[in-house]
């Protein structure tokens, strides 16, 4: 009887691991599937939350006014980077006065070569070297050197040497020299002129001299022109 009892128990003992193995696999598989579904649902919830948050973000208006405008111009033309206020226009005109390209405010001044000659093609900087008292390839209302113009044109994405693009490039140089905010707040001060002297040789340093030993306008001359021009611009605005 002991022998038969042993035989009866043995099959049960041998079958038990198989049943337990299947159960373990089934439970593990169920847990794995459950975890995958939970992770997938969590990912979907996170994605949904991000989409909702993005949709609720306030849209930036293209009509926002600031010192520097970076919004795209919907007309297809390059967007203006700098707003031309009366103060800034008076500054630009004063630079032209100092550089000898004022020409009573006519667009002719935007076609002036160093030495007083003229060029006609405004699609690009003329890059023409003129030998007078000095040798220079400066051109335009603000007497840009070719290398200076190319750097600024690339920076501001200016497609031509047109007057409005020359204005933008000049204001960029003013800002680069750290004088734009000073002029916006206080006008054409001696401090502002001193900052601009390394950019335009006709502007005086604090000492009243050119940074390059060239002919220079006095502080008084430039301030007088600036204030008169600014007054005219404000009256006509």
How many DSSP helices?
7
Rg calc: 37 Å
How many discrete structural domains? 2
In the CATH hierarchy, what is the class of the largest domain?
Mainly Alpha
Q: How would you sum up the major sheet?
A: 2 strands, antiparallel
Chain-averaged pLDDT: 79
How many angstroms does the end-to-end distance come to? 121 Å
- Helix share, percent: 40-55%
Trace the largest sheet across and list its strands: 1-2
What does this structure look like?
- With 237 residues, the chain is an all-alpha fold.
- 53% of the residues lie in helices and 2% in strands.
- The chain has helices spanning 2-56, 86-99, 146-156, 163-176, 180-186, 190-196, 219-236, and strands at 130-131, 135-136.
- It has a two-stranded antiparallel sheet with strand order 1-2.
- α2 (86-99) packs across α7 (219-236) and α3 packs across α4.
- Mean pLDDT is 79; it is low at 1-34 and 51-76.
Q: Could you give the topology of this structure?
A:
Elements: H1 2-56, H2 86-99, E1 130-131, E2 135-136, H3 146-156, H4 163-176, H5 180-186, H6 190-196, H7 219-236
Helix pairs in contact: 2-7, 3-4
């Amino acid at each position: 009887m002991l022998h038969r009892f042993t035989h009866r128990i043995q099959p049960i003992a041998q079958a038990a691991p198989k049943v337990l193995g299947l159960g373990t696999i089934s439970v593990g598989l169920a847990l794995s599937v459950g975890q995958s579904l939970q992770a997938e649902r969590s990912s979907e919830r996170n994605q949904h939350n991000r989409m909702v948050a993005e949709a609720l973000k306030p849209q930036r208006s293209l009509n926002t006014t600031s010192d520097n405008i970076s919004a795209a111009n919907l007309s297809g033309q390059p967007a203006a980077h700098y707003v031309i206020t009366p103060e800034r226009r008076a500054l630009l005109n004063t630079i032209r006065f100092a550089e000898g390209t004022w020409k009573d405010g006519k667009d002719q001044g935007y076609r002036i070569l160093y030495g007083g000659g003229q060029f006609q093609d405004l699609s690009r900087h003329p890059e023409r070297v003129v030998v007078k008292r000095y040798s220079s390839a400066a051109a335009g209302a603000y007497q840009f050197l070719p290398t200076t113009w190319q750097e600024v044109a690339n920076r501001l994405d200016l497609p031509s040497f047109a007057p409005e693009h020359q204005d933008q490039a000049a204001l960029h140089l003013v800002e680069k020299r750290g004088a734009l905010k000073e002029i916006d707040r206080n006008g054409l001060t001696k401090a502002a002129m001193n900052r601009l002297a390394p950019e335009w040789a006709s502007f005086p340093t604090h000492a009243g001299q050119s940074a390059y030993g060239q002919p220079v306008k006095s502080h008084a001359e430039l301030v007088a022109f600036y204030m008169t021009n600014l007054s005219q611009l404000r009256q006509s605005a």
